[in-house]
Amino acid sequence: MNAAVNTRTRGLVQITRQSDSDKNWTCSIVFYGDQERLSSVSLGTAQVIRLFRTLGAPAPVSKKESHVVEFYNTPDLAELKELGFFTAG
Fold first, then answer.
1. What is the 3 state secondary structure string of 9-34?
2. Predicted structure pTM score
3. What b/e sequence results for 41-80 when a residue is b if at least 16 CB atoms lie within 10 Å of its CB, and e otherwise?
4. 26 near 42, Cβ under 8 Å?
5. Percent of the chain that is helix, strand, coil (3-state, to 5)
6. How far is CA 73 from CA 7, 31, 58, 76, in A?
7. How confident is the prediction along the chain (89 residues), in pLDDT tens digits per residue?
């Protein structure tokens, strides 16, 4: 019997609008069950849209100051590094 294995990574992405700017966001990503965390980064609106596309997560459409969105697809880690994310020790 073959067991199905879920090879997709799940997690949460949180974005919070920076108080000093309407166009900059503090972004953090957490992967479920992973002991390592990615650093938080500051991204502009265009980069936040790219981040959500990389994660395969729906981009928030409300005007709230903070959003938490769950994603189900394994992100391209090279693309996350290009956006400034790195493993925080």
1. CCEEEEEEECCCCCCEEEEEEEECCC
2. 0.80
3. bebeeebbeebbebbebeeeeeeeeebeeebeeebeeeeb
4. yes
5. 20, 35, 50
6. 9, 11, 11, 9
7. 454 445 457 889 999 999 887 789 999 998 888 777 788 999 999 999 999 999 988 888 888 899 999 998 878 888 999 999 988 65
